[in-house]
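Here is an idea for our session: we take a single protein and study its fold together. Once you have written the record down, we can walk along the chain together.
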Amino acid sequence: MKYQNKGRGILFRQSILKILPQTDAIIFDCDGVLVDVSKSYDLAIKRTTAYVLEKFANIKSIQVSAKIISGFKATGGFNDEVDVTYACILSLVAARRLGINARKFINTVINNADSRGITSVEKYLNTLSVDLFDIRSSLKYPGPHSANPLYQIFDQMFYGKKLYQKIFHKKSQFKSKGLIENDIVIITPKLLSALQNKFTKKIAMVTGRGEESTKYSLGKLFDEFDISSSIFLEDHPRSLAKPNPKALVLSINRLKSQYCVYVGDSMEDLIMAKKANKMGKKVLFCGIYGTAQNPNSKKRFFEKNNVDIILESINLIPKALNLVD
């Protein structure tokens, strides 16, 4: 697949250059795109895993690394950070009980995972001679938030005392500040202004986050998006989670878009966009690689998968779309 370099950090498939002027809307993922979550969501995965292993299994294991997190997410089945956390917990408990090196074993689990997410992890672990009934029963995952210890622990760590109580109307058991405070907002008023001029305010989000969480992190910039056309998947049933294309299709329909750009950073985002195209929608996928744990590896991944537009940062979108010199 031939790519055209339009400047540092900007790659295009040559075949889409004539299509770009037809685009009339832009839809964003949030985490890793609008917001750098390496010190918030990723840290919540690490801390929740360590806490649950010690509390529920009396295990002090290896620290979950950024490579492990990105490894699970690269399979295309782990858009939900709590799914990643659960997969890490099961894998590390299994490693201890099998007497296997934890780091090597969790990489083996990743290699046997696929776009089915935790279902594929559980299926692989079921082939091994290891009893995980107690940890599975204790965590009750997945399940409704109100009866699910893993969801509650993760969200308490991520949101912090005040925001957790505001969203879930329950008290948090932790007093430390929420890791959401570590979110780094990437999108700027200048970028939004340029996009609003190009897309006549047809700017929305389809994100795995909930609306309250997204609004909290983006602050005043949240209102610059078409919220009525945005989908916040954490507020919807798991059946709508990425890579299910229904949320993206719904957003496109609400925007009355004939040809949209979807901006994401993950395998789930890419699969979702491809499925939306198969459903008759016209979607160009724009892959963001600069916030990845290994940016060069993510860039190569996007090239290998023939992604339409590959950018180091969303702040390059105006230059990529010829909105500025």
